[in-house]
Each structure stands twice: as structure tokens, then as C-alpha cells.
Amino acid sequence: MSDPGIDLQDAMIAALVADSSINVFFQALQTPAAPSDRILDLRATSPSDAVFPYVVLGEVHIVYDHADGWDGADNGVTIHVWSRDLGFREARTLGRLVERCLNRVELQLPLDRVVSVFSETSQYMRDPDGISAHGALRFSVKTEPKI
Length: 147
Hints:
The protein is an alpha+beta fold. It contains 3 helices and 5 strands; from the N terminus they run ααβββαββ. The protein has helices spanning about 5-20, 20-25, 90-100, and strands at about 40, 55-65, 70-85, 110-125, 135-145.
């Protein structure tokens, strides 16, 4: 049986990897890392191997809604962007591209239907290493079983 949380992560990563604006952004950096190597799923890869800047699909929390025989869920998804460029311009630019890609995107899941995807918040901060800029982007994704 498929886990809707895992399926949701897979669909979001696929949307980011396929996004032409994100690919153009990464290609303009003229570094050897392919754009698809800069969008990380921590279930499969370690950020210690990443080339800056990069995107990480982070935490997911699920609040289930079992009402009147309906099994929907509100999924809170956090996506992180990381940069070593001076200031926050690169991190904020990449974060905005991620938000544009995923806000209101139509995602397909094997067993569930994505009702809505909305960008909720973004926060940019200096990492404790004193070098890295870090953006945390939070999305609300409502899902329900396919009928």
C-alpha cells in the first residue's frame, strides 16, 4: 500500500526537477552540478554532498481529518533552500522560484487526490555556520482519497 506522505514528497520533487525556471536558474550558475542534483530528497542523499545553492525537501507533518467517513489530510511541508552567496539574494531568488513552482500546482498521487497546494510562509536566515543563507518555505497541501 502506498503512503500518501511519501507519494506527496515524490510528486513535489518531480515538479521541482521538471520546472523550467528552476532549471534555468541552476544552469546559469555554470557549475558542473546538474540542476536535478541540486534538488535533494534526504531519504536518498546527504546534504554534505550538495553543491551550493540547493533545495532540500524537508519536514512533513500530517493532520488527519476523519469526518463523516472522509479521510482527508492537511499536510504541512517544509522545503529548505541553501546558498553560500553573499547576502540573501541568491537564496531568496531560488526560494521564490520554488514557491512559484509549487503554489497551486496540480500534483498527481497514486491513491490520493491533491485538493490544493498553497505557499504559506517563507523565512530567510543566516545559518549558525556564519556562511550559509537558509530559507525555510512552508506549504499547506490538502489531500483526500480518490473515489
